[in-house]
Amino acid sequence: MPRATQTDLAVLAALSVAPMTGYAVRDAIRTHLGSFWNESFGQIYPALARLRTEGLVEVDAGERTGSSVHRLTAAGRARLVELMREPAVMTPPRNGMLLRLFFGDVIGAEACRALVGEAREQAVAQLAALAAARRETEAEPAELPQRAYWLMTISAGEHTARASIAWADETLAALTALTAP
To answer: Once rounded to an integer, what is the mean pLDDT over residues 9-28?
Structure first.
């Protein structure tokens, strides 16, 4: 699935929850999917324009520029189902910290310790954010059809954050051993 199609999937899926502005689509993706998915305004607005041209999204012009509310059409919901049924594309991650660590001999163990320590702090913060998301989601009515799926996704994020923390602890110990006399 090409990148544009994945963006379409993210935008259509966000709009399946509720009609919203382009800004609200970006905010919803960042807030609810941010631990595993990201879309920029530079991806969202062209996607919305393309989806509108294809008849998959309708737009109600807002009172001010940029406040147009987008909603799925029946064709848009059908396209969302098609995209959801396609095999998932696993894109290679781009992790600047791991790139630097791989070539850590250039900057030394102490600088790498700082990088890994910062990554650990980010994972701890992510775990805390996921705990808040879990509490909010668990407070949703049990009969809400999305609730179980949201909790499964939150669980994946929690497991990933815990694994990142464990890896960081192990790596910090290894880096300390490199600098020991």
So the answer is: 92
123-146 per-position pLDDT tens digit: 999 999 999 999 999 999 999 988
CA–CA dist 79, 9 (Å, integer): 9
DSSP SS3 for 62:
coil
- Residue 132: both structure tokens together: 């808040």
Task: Give pTM, 2 decimals.
Answer: 0.78
The torsion angle over the Cα atoms of residues 67, 21, 30 and 137, rounded to 10 degrees, is: 120
Q: Which two tokens stand for residue 1?
A: 């699935």
**Helix pair 22-33, 41-53: axis angle to 10 deg:** 120
HSE-up of 30 (CA within 13 Å, CB side)?
A: 10
Give the position of tokens 């919901």: 77
Residue 24: closest CA among 33, 15, 13, 36? 15
